[in-house]
Fold:
Amino acid sequence: MTNFENMVICRCEEVTYGQLLSTAAEHKCTARELKLRTRAGMGFCGGRTCRVSVDKIIESVSPDITPGDIPLKYQPPVRPVTFGTVGEKK
Amino acid sequence: MSDVIIIGAGPAGLAGAIACAENGLRVTVVDEFIKPGGRLLGQLHQEPSGDWWNGIKEAERLHQNAMNLSVDIRCGVSVYNLEKCSQNWNVHTSIGTLTAPFVLIATGAAEYPVPVPGWTLPGVMSIGAAQVMTNVHRVQVGKKGIIIGANILAFAILNELQLAGINVERIVLPEKNPNSQKAGEPEEVLKSLLHASHLAPSPLLRFGSKFMKKDWIRKMGINFYPKNGIKINGTPLQLRKAALEVIGKDQVEGVRIADTDANGKVIPGTEKIYEADFVCIAGGLYPLAELAAVTGCPFHYVPELGGHVPSHSETMETPLDGLFVAGNITGIESGKIAMAQGITAGLSIAKHAGKGKNNINNKLQQAVQNIRTVRQNAAIQFNPDIDRGRSKMKQIWEDQHNNNNQTQEKIG
Ligand SMILES: Cc1cc2nc3c(=O)[nH]c(=O)nc-3n(C[C@H](O)[C@H](O)[C@H](O)COP(=O)(O)OP(=O)(O)OC[C@H]3O[C@@H](n4cnc5c(N)ncnc54)[C@H](O)[C@@H]3O)c2cc1C
Structure:
């Protein structure tokens, strides 16, 4: 079981399954709060890899949530960019 | 300045570009990959007719057509934000901001993994990565592979790996847990494979229907599923085995696998390590809709379409003025359907731009009808209930147009 809990879910920020579960249990998190507390889904890939997994974990720990309600928010920039690019200065 | 900016040079984006340009619009296409074609570049399979679907050739054909119509195609350019500014859309890219009154988002689908302990070891990859390495970059992914996850995508790509002479030793399921859900339940997996099997393109993929035509097997179902699996072109499909962990020190050395009961519960004492030097995880696909989300476009959750999709009509318009969508962003389907949707979106944009004269409405209706025809004849269908998903979206759109109080959900 510890093997399972040590399994990385968010690879960019190296957040494990166990960390997500214990944070969700301790704080009764919404999807957004769980993301902000653990940084799962907030790394280099913008959550493209772990978004579906993180959603499912939230679904499994908060049974009163229906899958349609819980998507994690998307924020620009949706790709990694330099400050120069965003500021339109190179 | 262009009239239309298309994000994504896959089948939907390129077909849309061609339809726009044929109707006199100036078109720019941007794509972050090094060459145009999107997911077509990895596709190779045999149709029920016996013809081969060669995605690379299709991509070349579309690219050439678009070039002949003077479409400006820019590869290696990422779009990181999209916003409306008075009459125009600002498309923020890695080479600066492009502006146009019309935007078509055709960003396709992304894969989601089913995490398995040890999946961060070098040598573990998504099944789609194995496809790209094999068919696009022509790199041998390994000598001895195991696929975790049994779905249509896994079979299509298994076939491609086999054609390339790459040895896949077995297909097993992920262990059943909150993350894998139904993908870890042998009975559910068998059911979904049987649903899809009549649509399967090659003899390899049709294995299920042949197997299940034997009524007694259908009745006995998973309980009598052979322990060592059923061979697909030499690779055993082992629905009663689950991957518990990928093992290895610095890279993949093998997978710890156990037998399971019909519900996916591990049978204690059956664990065994199977050697492998690469592992492919076949989770599934979901619409890559991040750019539609940042515009504030409303979304709907339609599981048959693969998850959250931007609200759209049959003619591929979104509720936002000048914003259109086509291809896998609207639901997970095969390449030909993406192309048919792209044509529809292109004609729809031409119509909104006042192009295409009187017969544009006719053409647009024909294009919508053509999507349905292509869908009916599709060789690969990722979700057996796709028709239901499409009708749901259509209904939602129509209701919204008749009644503004409909509930909408924003994920942007
Ligand atoms: C791994 C995988 C394997 C598949 N295998 C098959 C198969 O074997 N057979 C089959 O019929 N279908 C397969 N599909 C389904 C496939 O999505 C469709 O066949 C078809 O390619 C969808 O076309 P599209 O134009 O919607 O998207 P795509 O073909 O995916 O093209 C989208 C393009 O948009 C670009 N893009 C995305 N985001 C951005 C951005 N922010 N900035 C710039 N460019 C961006 C991408 O680089 C990509 O080139 C597969 C899909 C995936 C993900």
